[in-house]
Structures are given as C-alpha cells and as structure tokens.
Amino acid sequence: MINKSLKIKELIPYKNGVFTQKDEISPAYINLKNPKFIEIDNTYYSGIIIVNYYREYSELILKKLIDTNINMNISIFYEKQDTYKTIRDLTYNIGNVGVSLKDTDNSRQDMEIAAFTYSDAKYIRKEMQINNEELYFLYIYITVYSDNVSELNYYLNKIEGLLESIGLQTKRANFRQEEVMLACLPTTENNYIIKNAAKRNVLTNGLVSTYPFITSSIFDEEGIFIGTNIYNDSLIFIDRYNSEKYKNANICVFGTSGSRKIILFKIINIKICCFGARTICY
Description:
Elements: H1 8-16, H2 21-25, E1 30-31, E2 38-40, E3 43-52, H3 63-67, E4 72-80, H4 83-101, H5 108-130, E5 135-146, H6 149-165, E6 169-172, H7 177-183, H8 192-198, E7 200-203, H9 204-207, E8 224-228, E9 235-238, H10 261-267, E10 272-275, E11 278-281
C-alpha cells in the first residue's frame, strides 16, 4: 500500500524508472563470445600485447603508431624493482649459470642460451652498480577498435607490421580480450592473467623511448608557415599573435651559421639582436 500523503511528484521516478548518470554512459550490450574481439554497441575491439623488444632504442618506439590515423588505445605500465634485491638475485643467478656453463653434458643449444643469460645478467648488474641505473618491469598493451570486423583485422595486421619493423614482437590477445581492454581503460587494471605475457625488464635509460606523447602536427588556421615537421613531413603553421593559445609565447631556434635563422625571425616579425656570430632573440 502506498501512503496517500506521498506527493505525486515523488512517485514520478518510480513510475518512469530510475535512470542515473551511470546508466547514461553504460553500453547497451557487451558481447564476449568471440575470443578474437569484443563487441560493444556495434563497435569491435581487439587487443595486442607487446611481448618482447630491444632494451635500448635510439628513438621513440611508439612514434610510428601515434603518427597513424588508426583508432587505438595504448596503455603502458611501469613497475619499479627494489635495487638491492635485484642486484642480489642477479648475483645469485650469475653464479648458478656460471657453474652450468662449465658442465659439458649440456647440449650446444642449452649452452648458447645459458651464455646469453649469463652475459645479459652481468650487463644489467653492471649498469645498476656502476651507472646507477634502476630496473623496471614494463608492460605495453594496445586496443584497436573499428565499426566492422574486416577493417579491424586490417588495422591489426598494419599495427603488427609497424611494430615488427622496429623490432617489437607482438601477440594478439585471443581469449584475453577483456583483460587487455580493461588495461587500456582509465581504471589502469593490469591483470595478472596478461602480466606474465607482457612483462619485460628495462633499465632507466630505456624508459625514455616509451614516452608516448608526440605532437604529430602543429597547425594554426591563421598561422604563418614555419617549415615542415622532421618526423612526419607535415606542414607547420604558427599564429604567435594568438594570445589565448600562446600566452607570453617564446621561440628558441637552433641552427648552424648560414641556415637563415634571421630570415625566419623577420618573416614572423620577432625582434632580434645580433652579436657577431650569435643571434639573441626575444
């Protein structure tokens, strides 16, 4: 029985159904039946796990991916390891592997693997003890999405080709699509089911190559043509008079003698002071 004293406007939410903000952002359906992708509101999502890569890179390893127009989410996890414990474990393993190398009963293949492990462990320990490097566990996941399955497979093949061209080994997250997708969401959930497949060690100097924020283009509609981007050959237009975007903007230009730095400053109307071979701009 409903109390008659209850106002009619208080009954409206119960009559029409309770609809919260959570219901507005929630998908209508989620299909997890296919092990190769997840379907959410007519959009297909598929994950890729980077399982191996070089320890040292001279450029950003994700630059080629970010420069593409493929719809994807990239998630990177770092786990710093205890330096004292790591050096202690490395010293223990180096001793054990050194003993196994002296065992002549092992096959040639086993000896080559043991020798590689031995030299690799010694290199990491040297970098940590002498160069004050620190060891991290690195995890990289990629979720690609599209409106149809054919286009999704095309994007997956293209991404795998790009990653393999720079020495990154990948594995599709079949039967682990949900875990990879959750890892690429802002919830930052790195599930143990996929951690063992993606975990690789990297030193401090190798973390720089995983920096994911790259400006693929700089284009202001009313800007002045400055030049081309050396990374993707895109045109660069900068409107330095746009005070809303560039508050108290400063420009610093480096170049060899005769590279026409002063001409650039005259084009964009910047005051310059010249002292011999040096040019000071403000």
